[in-house]
Amino acid sequence: MRIGYGYDVHRLEAGESLILGGVEIPFEKGLVGHSDADVLLHAISDALLGAVALGDIGKHFPDTDEQYSGIDSRLLLKEVAGLIRKEGYDIANIDAIVVAEQPKLAPYILEMRQCIAEDLGLGKGQVSVKATTSEGIGFEGRQQGISSRAVVLLQEA
Length: 157
Description:
Pfam families: YgbB (PF02542). The record marks 34, 133 as: Transition state stabilizer. The protein is an alpha+beta fold. The protein has one domain (2-156): CATH 3.30.1330.50. It has 5 helices and 7 strands. The strands form 2 sheets. A 5-stranded mixed β-sheet has the order 4-1-7-5-6. A two-stranded antiparallel ribbon has the order 2-3. A hairpin with a 2-residue loop joins strand 2 (19-20) and strand 3 (23-24). The chain is globular, with a radius of gyration of 15 Å.
């Protein structure tokens, strides 16, 4: 078995799209990044890659490569899943959390879990997504950005 941990953060700006867990969420601000800036999928991807010591998503999908400009992070997650399986591992489960003061994410959690499970070929019961605020503290609390953390458990295929 292997365990991986991932973390990601992106800035919030007006006029950008807010996509979390592959779900577009209506909000006056969105996340800025080279890709679609989906912090949740980036944290999960980094956790998966880290569990098999393959580095991080920046190594595999660098922001200096224009082919990844604006790319849907669901596509990157599927690529990462292929790399994990190529190393001889299956995903046992994922536990992730998004830290955002606004918007409230509870109405979107089930859809996020479904997207992630579908993209990774998992059952919805293998994917946990939670959301919390930072109680007004830090960059998340000031609504300057959103962060996400994820832990994954892999097992030999």
